[in-house]
Design brief:
The chain has 135 residues and is an alpha/beta fold. The chain contains five helices and five strands; from the N terminus they run βαβαβαβααβ.
């Protein structure tokens, strides 16, 4: 059912809840995971630092899946996260987008929006969102 799953990550402890869930879900469905981290920074120094940090983080995350027999691939993209994630979901023809949410309150989401909120209202494929216990 879920052959290909796109997994947007933000590189923080918030991701742990979706990683743990996907270890179980991907085994059941024999899924291939596409890990994506979209970077959006204003200076070259910030971007260079974050890119290097992200490469290490994505490798560490792929190692978790590899240890569990789950194939995964990672990618780093640059730009507006909600736009890039939707584009990649369509380009890769994924069956599911699975991500952790920060669990902001409704007022913050209304005023500022959230990547998860924008994604779920843009795509026509299933979106799995799990609220993190981390804050």
């Amino acid at each position: 059912m879920y052959d290909k799953i796109l997994v947007p990550l933000d590189g923080t402890k918030i991701d742990n809840v979706i990683i743990e869930h996907l270890v179980k879900l991907a085994k059941i469905h024999h899924s291939h995971l596409y890990l994506i981290r979209v970077l959006h920074y204003h200076t070259r120094d910030e971007l260079a630092h974050e890119t290097e940090k992200t490469k290490k983080y994505l490798q560490k995350t792929m190692d978790i899946f590899k240890q569990n027999g789950i194939p995964s691939r990672s990618m780093i993209e640059y730009g507006e996260p909600e736009r890039i994630i939707v584009e990649k979901a369509n380009e890769l023809d994924v069956d599911l987008i699975a991500l952790a949410t920060h669990g902001h309150n409704w007022l913050i989401d209304i005023l500022f929006g959230s990547v998860a909120h924008k994604i779920r209202h843009t795509v026509s494929i299933p979106v799995l969102m799990i609220r993190s216990k981390e804050r």
